[in-house]
């Protein structure tokens, strides 16, 4: 089943695989023919009793034929090398592309199933292993069995009695390989997980390097890395131990057979039962048989590790995306931005709701504040609107239509989001902002940045809007990154704008100017503001107070100061902090 799922990515590459196989066949034929031709030369020289000039001429002609066959064999081998490389590269490209597209379609719930480090390993290390395995299969799968069978036939045709040792040796080798395969597969599975782990450690360390240095925890992180590296090395030693074990055993058996062939062959030659030249030819064919048995054995070991990688790749490709378009998706023609929660409950895990019976309505063009203690479900609430997660119970409506009935792209196109974690990409500031609207003019970009209070600090950068940001915007402060993300969202001109604690790193004066922009320039946009500070939502048309996943109260700032104990407590605490 797994093989069937992966072979579809070879569609259209059959001619490359065929060319690779034919190249190997040509090389194998030429390689097998040379020993027999060489033996004929030996026989001609041994039995020569005529014209020496004619003998030299005949030998020269045979030499030219051997050279020609060697060149043909070389061309066959080069053809196989080229076609197998191209086929395996295209195969891996298609798998990676399919994996990337699948991961891009994942909901947040799907992404939570896999760690980022594991997905990275699967798309790189695991796919590379499949690529190398296909290349190895194309180069060996035809050549090795062909050489093995034909060499065995030639060997038996020269001396069946001596060649019979292969019938004893072959079952022994097969038994050794089967034992190694049985224990190898689980080891390779564990090895890939250890690679996941070391990628996770490195990723966390590099992303959080500033925190590591700030807390002087370099030694601890080095210990974590060394521990993960040691685990990978130890598992690699165990897995590789199987591979390195098979080679000495095979070589020992092969050397034993060669000694036996030469000993018995020389004994038979002394008795006149076979020619001396046939001993070398027979030994050559026996070595070909044994070498190709070893090649097939190594191929099986490679396939064992490839299977462990293939299982992990197929696991991603077979993951059922839980948030998809309905059969007849609704595409809004004139969206307004009205949001309504009707008895909505939600939980990341079944039976463990973190939001319970949420009901409220945000009118189109209104500004709604959401406030509450840390962990009360504020971010989870707004993540349901663009269907980053789906509600567990109840209904979530946008402009009176259940979000599950929307076309996903159309729904998310009318929503702008500035999440808690500010995500910027390597590239110019302008290009990052144009994520909101790829077709935006320079004037529109500048206006959006002015509204987000980002224009001044952008112009202070070395190249202004063309300044290149480091990965994740590391060359900017937290507040600057937040303002760029807000500008990006404003440029999109969404009907619904979600700000998830997006001004937490901005000073109060700048935050006030940004809020003023929302009231003056986003009059047709429904704005949801998640905030920790009451000052951030005090002027909102409606404020929702969450407590432990439930709505405690809804009202304006003045109303909640009179009716909500939680709101009063938050306000008092923050006012006390200001006074102090």
Order of strands, main sheet, comes to 6-9-10-3-11-12
What is the molecular shape? Answer: elongated
How many domains make up the coordinates?
Answer: 3
What is the terminal-to-terminal distance?
68 Å
DSSP helix fraction: 55-70%
Number of DSSP strand runs: 12
Specify the CATH homologous superfamily of the largest domain: ABC transporter type 1, transmembrane domain
Largest sheet properties: 6 strands, mixed
Strand coverage percent: 5-15%
CATH class of the largest domain: Mainly Alpha
Structural notes for this entry:
Helix content is 64%, strand content 10%. The protein has helices spanning 2-7, 14-47, 52-104, 108-113, 116-140, 143-158, 160-163, 165-207, 209-214, 218-270, 276-317, 378-383, 408-413, 429-433, 442-451, 455-459, 478-491, 508-521, 557-563, 565-579; strands spanning 339-346, 355-362, 367-372, 393-398, 401-402, 415-418, 427-428, 468-469, 496-500, 526-530, 542-547, 550-555. The protein has three domains: 2-317, ABC transporter type 1, transmembrane domain (ABC transporter transmembrane region fold, Up-down Bundle), CATH 1.20.1560; 326-414 and 496-580, Rossmann fold, CATH 3.40.50.300; 420-493, P-loop containing nucleotide triphosphate hydrolases (Rossmann fold, 3-Layer(aba) Sandwich).
Q: What's the short version?
A:
With 580 residues, the protein is an alpha/beta fold.
Topology:
Elements: H1 2-7, H2 14-47, H3 52-104, H4 108-113, H5 116-140, H6 143-158, H7 160-163, H8 165-207, H9 209-214, H10 218-270, H11 276-317, E1 339-346, E2 355-362, E3 367-372, H12 378-383, E4 393-398, E5 401-402, H13 408-413, E6 415-418, E7 427-428, H14 429-433, H15 442-451, H16 455-459, E8 468-469, H17 478-491, E9 496-500, H18 508-521, E10 526-530, E11 542-547, E12 550-555, H19 557-563, H20 565-579
Helix pairs in contact: 2-3, 2-6, 2-11, 3-5, 5-8, 5-11, 6-11, 8-10, 8-11, 10-11, 15-17, 19-20
